[in-house]
Each structure stands twice: as structure tokens, then as C-alpha cells.
Amino acid sequence: MTESDGLLTACAVPPPPGSEADLFPIRVRGLKNAFGPHVVHENLDLDVRRGEILGVVGGSGTGKSVLMRAIIGLQIPEEGTIEVLGSPITDARDDDDIDIRCRWGILFQGGALFSTLTVAENVEVPLREFYPEITDELRHEIARYKVLLSGLPAEATSKYPSELSGGMRKRAGLARALALDPELLFLDEPTAGLDPIGAAGFDQLIRSLQQTLGLTVFLITHDLDTLYEICDRVAVLADKRVIAVGTIPELIATDHPWIKSYFNGPRGRAAMAAAERNGALGTSGDQA
Ligand SMILES: Nc1ncnc2c1ncn2[C@@H]1O[C@H](COP(=O)(O)OP(=O)(O)OP(=O)(O)O)[C@@H](O)[C@H]1O
């Protein structure tokens, strides 16, 4: 998006090439999150590598969304540190204090679109917030480009969220997440509620955008097909921490009971058979 490149330089100050922050755009150490006596995370560590799609899985209530919220500064941890693109998120007083918010895009569950705004107006919200000085014409053009990039037809720009299917709403949410040309993309259950064909199409869209735009993707999902098809590595949340990170074959080789039952259950086996047919299984990773 050449028109916006110059504008975004003001916001995005990349870490030095080869630095830790460059190699690992998200680094979490010793994280503790709790709601009163309910401890969700304790001593949680995680490194996300630049340019990977990291799938984040775990049973319901293990704290996948809370982890994402902590990384983007919406949940203040009781202990630990979080660095995103070299910036210490845990030192921020509130999310307005985080100067790298313009370098990530977020697709929340359900899209979280403003119902009274059209798709294009939704995409324009972050542009207005971070770049109030750009002209209306350029803002409209950037929004239209992001809508098309997300696989929606041009007509969708003037539609309201209530006029879209669930799959189209996800794509509109993705268009808004891409509005500022982010380096990091956070996706919370992006294929939840989509039919299998729509979900597969969304997976391929994410993979193709990640490759074309060089994104690093933090992807929470329960969708085994998504894990097999597009994730480079998978982080497993259990016992209040990340118990393992690796490719799926590496995770299957571990002996944690939850991991074994997750990947070796009937759905896991079906997803693996489909991935083997497509040649989608990866090779490298490590155990936490
Ligand atoms: N604002 C909050 N106040 C109190 N407890 C909360 C709050 N947000 C999350 N929790 C609790 O934290 C735990 C983790 O929630 P979280 O939504 O992160 O789980 P999850 O792994 O994303 O679950 P799911 O897969 O079902 O979406 C849950 O027990 C939840 O009830």
C-alpha cells in the first residue's frame, strides 16, 4: 500500500535487525494473571517468532483470550513481563500508553464491528484515530483496498454489519485489523461459527496474507483443521501455563495427557488424515 507507507513510518519504529525483539516480536516471561482468588496463568512463558503463524490451543477456560488480552495491554498481569516488538507492555499505565498499538491488528471473536458504521467506515476507525491528518479521499481509498484485500467484493464497503453473513463479517473485521499495515495480527477464534468451506477459505486467506504481508500471527483456535493447514507451530495452554510449543508432530510425540487426547481423538485423527493428504505437516519447534 504505497500511499500509506510514508504515513505509517511515523508510527512504526522497527527494532534493530537481528535483535531479540526483531526475532521474537512477542516475549512473555513469568506471567501471572488472576481474577481475585482465581489464578488463570502462573509462571507462563512464551516466545513468538517473527513471521510465524502460532496457533494457541487449550481447553475451555485455560486462558487463551486472557493471554491475548494481556499481550495487547487490555489485562494487567499480577506478575511477569510482556514485550511486544521490543516495547514493555507491562510497564504501560493503560492501553493509551502503549505506543505500538498501531503496529498490530486484532480480530476479536465475532468481529466486534461497530453496527452503526458501514464496513468501510469500520475500517476507517483506526485510520482516523492514528492518522487524523490524512485526507478523506486517501482514507476512503485505503479502506476500500483493505476490504478487497480481505476477500470481500467492492459492494461490501457500503454495507452495514447486519447486512453481511457471518463469514463476511469476519472478513470485514480482518479488513479493519489490517487497516494500519500491522506487523502483528491477533486472531481470536477466526473460524468459529463458519461452515467448513468458509472456514477453509478463511484459513487460506490468513495464510496468503501472512506470506504476502510478512505478518506474525497469534491465532487462538479450537479448529484442528486450521492448526494443521496454516499454523507453523502450536502453543498449548494447560496447568496455568504454556506446557509445550512446537509443530504438531512434535506435540503428538510428547506424553502430556491433554495433548495426546486432543490430537489423537477422532477429530484430531480426521484433521491429521486431511493434512497428510494435503502435505500440510511442518517439522521444527521446541517443548516448553
Ligand atoms: N473479566 C473477567 N473476570 C473474571 N474472570 C474472568 C474474566 N475474563 C476471563 N475470566 C476467567 O478467566 C478464565 C480464562 O478465560 P478465557 O476467556 O481466557 O478462556 P479461554 O481459554 O479463551 O476459553 P474459551 O476457549 O472457552 O474461549 C475463565 O475461567 C474465565 O471465567
From TrEMBL:
Keywords: ATP-binding, Nucleotide-binding, Transport. It holds the Pfam family ABC_tran. InterPro entries: AAA+_ATPase, ABC_transporter-like_ATP-bd, ABC_transporter-like_CS, P-loop_NTPase. Residues 26-264 form the ABC transporter domain. The keyword Transport applies. Signal peptide: none annotated. It comes from the Bacteria. PROSITE patterns: ABC_TRANSPORTER_1, ABC_TRANSPORTER_2. GO terms for molecular function: ATP binding; ATP hydrolysis activity. SMART domains: AAA. PANTHER family: PROTEIN TRIGALACTOSYLDIACYLGLYCEROL 3, CHLOROPLASTIC. This is ABC transporter ATP-binding protein. The lineage of its organism: Bacteria, Pseudomonadati, Pseudomonadota, Alphaproteobacteria, Sphingomonadales. The gene is yrbF.
